[in-house]
């Protein structure tokens, strides 16, 4: 698979450039509108584009084309980056997709907007004049919407792989670092608002049972948003000392400390006493992870398996103690998180 954004790139660089003579006639787009298929996906988008309403056949066509394509590209690129589950490949895809490709497109768009005078003021319905060149106005609409599409694509990928990215962009950064434009009062690209629906009361017995099973899926490292590299150091140390399998990927390891559901548990290659002491240090002694309401051993069994791929028996953890031979090594490994 490729990480090229072909259709969006065609609008910026190739045959779909809206300012080309062959693409100027508005009427030619009337029959094309029905040919653009709506994107359908279960992907949980974190941002949405809320732009001006298109005003002619050409802007309606390009708007539908861009908005549908950016959705399908978000899903495709996130899956592409995830599929190999290899840390070196993930780092490569993120560097190539975000820094080399999308940032370059946004820099080029910033230059194009200045060269062709595609300023937002031309399409502001409260400020624009009907005496303006309608072709120029349509092209401005399309280029400005294309800019938002690349920005959304960047932010969605960044959000999906946030634990891998240290220098994260916010909306203002696109304008100040790449587009070299004044930051607008209205970004048109907004975080999706999650509406919480109040659930009906559940009988107490069922509530307790549900909480036990579903409330906690993994550990949540308190410094994950600010110091994700500390988990990398822990991962290195545990592998070096043969506490976890050498085949453990950094991505899967970090998921154990993300608070999310675990699909691939970590293979603990040390003994059960060493796992007990490791969890005791991060949870009870140093409180490096969020409170699990005394469910730390249940969560441990969700996150780790033995060398045969079997789950640990949580009842056995309660009688264990610090391992005499390897306690120092575990303490040194955990010190990376402090």
Structure description:
This protein is an all-alpha fold and 338 residues long. The chain folds into two domains: 4-189, no CATH class; 226-334, no CATH class. The chain contains eleven helices and four strands. A two-stranded antiparallel sheet has the order 1-2. It is elongated, with a radius of gyration of 26 Å. Residues 204-214 have low confidence and may be disordered.
Descriptive tags:
2 domains; two-stranded parallel sheet; mainly alpha; 338 residues; 4 strands; 47% helix
Helix-strand blueprint:
Elements: H1 6-13, E1 47-49, H2 57-83, H3 87-115, H4 134-160, H5 171-179, E2 189-191, H6 204-214, H7 229-240, H8 250-255, E3 266-267, H9 272-285, H10 296-303, E4 304-305, H11 327-334
Helix pairs in contact: 2-4, 3-4, 7-11, 9-11
Order of helices and strands: HEHHHHEHHHEHHEH
Strand content: under 5%
Which structural class do the helices and strands define? Answer: mainly alpha
- Poorly predicted runs of 5 or more residues: 204-214
Total number of strands: 4
Number of helices: 11
In round numbers, the mean pLDDT is 89
> What's the number of domains?
2
Largest sheet: 2 strands, antiparallel
């Amino acid at each position: 698979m490729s990480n090229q954004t072909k259709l969006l790139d065609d609008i910026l660089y190739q045959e779909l450039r809206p300012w080309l003579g062959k693409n100027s006639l508005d009427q030619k787009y009337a029959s094309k509108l029905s040919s653009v298929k709506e994107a359908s996906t279960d992907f949980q988008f974190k941002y949405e584009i809320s732009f001006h309403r298109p005003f002619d056949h050409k802007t309606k066509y390009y708007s539908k084309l861009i908005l549908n394509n950016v959705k399908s590209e978000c899903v495709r690129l996130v899956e592409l980056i995830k599929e190999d589950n290899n840390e070196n490949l993930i780092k490569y895809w993120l560097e190539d997709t975000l820094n080399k490709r999308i940032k370059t497109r946004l820099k080029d768009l910033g230059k194009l907007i200045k060269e062709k005078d595609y300023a937002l003021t031309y399409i502001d319905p409260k400020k624009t004049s009907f005496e303006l060149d309608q072709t120029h106005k349509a092209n401005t609409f399309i280029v400005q919407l294309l800019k938002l599409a690349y920005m959304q694509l960047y932010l969605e990928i960044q959000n999906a792989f946030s634990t891998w990215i240290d220098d994260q962009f916010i909306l203002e950064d696109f304008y100040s670092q790449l587009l070299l434009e004044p930051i607008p009062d209205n970004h048109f690209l907004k975080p999706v608002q999650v509406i919480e629906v109040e659930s009906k009361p559940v009988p107490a017995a069922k509530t307790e049972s549900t909480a036990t099973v579903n409330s906690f899926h993994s550990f949540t490292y308190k410094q994950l948003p600010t110091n994700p590299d500390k988990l990398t150091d822990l991962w290195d140390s545990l592998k070096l000392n043969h506490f976890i399998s050498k085949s453990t990927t950094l991505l899967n390891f970090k998921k154990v400390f993300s608070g999310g559901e675990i699909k691939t548990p970590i293979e603990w290659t040390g003994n059960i006493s060493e796992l007990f002491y490791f969890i005791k240090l991060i949870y009870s002694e140093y409180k490096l992870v969020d409170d699990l309401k005394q469910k730390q051993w249940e969560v441990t069994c969700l996150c780790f398996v033995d060398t045969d791929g079997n789950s640990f028996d949580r009842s056995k953890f309660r009688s264990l103690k610090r391992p005499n031979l390897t306690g120092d090594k575990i303490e040194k490994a955990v010190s990376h998180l402090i």
